[in-house]
Amino acid sequence: MKKLIVSIISCLILFPLSIIAQSRNAPVKGKLFIIGGGDRSTELMQTLIATARMKPNDYAVVLPMSSEYPDTSFYYFKEDYDPVCKNAIVCFNFTKQNSNSKSWLDSLEHARLIFITGGDQARFMNIVLNSPIYAAIHTAYKNGATIGGTSAGAAVMSKYMITGNQLNDTSYSATFAVVHDKNLEIKEGLGLLSSAIIDQHFIVRSRYNRLLSAIAKYPSLPCIGIDEATAIIVQGDEIKVRGESQVVVLKHPEQVQVTSKGLIKFKDLQFSVYTAGDTFTLR
Question: Which domains does the chain have, with CATH numbers?
Answer without folding.
Answer: 27-281 (3.40.50.880)
